[in-house]
Fold this sequence. Notes:
Elements: E1 3-5, H1 11-22, E2 26-28, H2 35-38, E3 44-46, H3 51-65, H4 68-74, E4 76-79, E5 83-88, E6 93-96, E7 101-103, E8 110-112, E9 115-120, E10 128-129, E11 132-136, E12 139-143, E13 150-154, E14 158-161, E15 164-166, E16 168-178, H5 183-202, H6 207-223
Antiparallel strand pairs: 1-13, 2-3, 3-5, 4-16, 5-16, 6-14, 7-8, 9-13, 9-16, 10-15, 11-12, 11-14
Helix pairs in contact: 5-6
Amino acid sequence: MLLEIPNVFTAEEAAKIRQTLAQANWVDGKVTAGYISAQVKQNAQLAQDDPLAGQIGNLIIQRLTQNPVFMSGALPRRILPPLFNRYEGGQAFGFHVDNSVRKFPDAAERMRTDLSATLFFSEPQDYDGGELIIRDTFGERSVKLAAGSLVLYPGTSLHKVTPVTRGARISSFFWIESMIREDSQRALLFDMDIAVQRLARDDPDHPSVVELTGVYHNLVRRWADV
């Protein structure tokens, strides 16, 4: 399931974050790439231990855990601290698959990367190229969202970032371990949750609201890995 979530930050908030990040100390993006990915990765990245990364990363997680669409679509168990990258001057990231397991910074704890996320901070009209291309069984999807918007997609997906030939593409990227491992099960639960919410809004006294809510939670109980 590929899910676009608009307005995690307003355009004004995204602009302030972008301006702050533009003045940050960037390093070679290969520092967090695996052996294969490093061969096709050309970008700059904010160091994981940079205080700015922690400050903005915490704000991102706070916003997302208060976002009902994200919570319904991801059903997060753990979220890896967000990272930040910048593409410019023809930089790109060729097709790759994200590492299946990643380590938390400064800890021995590891987590599965069930879901990948990209949160855009640059407005699409301010740079050429930089599309996130996600390939799945239905073909390729091109994603280039407004500043402050996020795309969530399965960590199993083959994906790339096309060359940025004008301007700069600044974004945050990170991974989520879901309570529900299987993407198909998460998609079913998301569709059911949205439908139940719609029914509850349109006909709050309908007895199916309670019944379907029970079915939803029993499916979560059956499939959850916690």
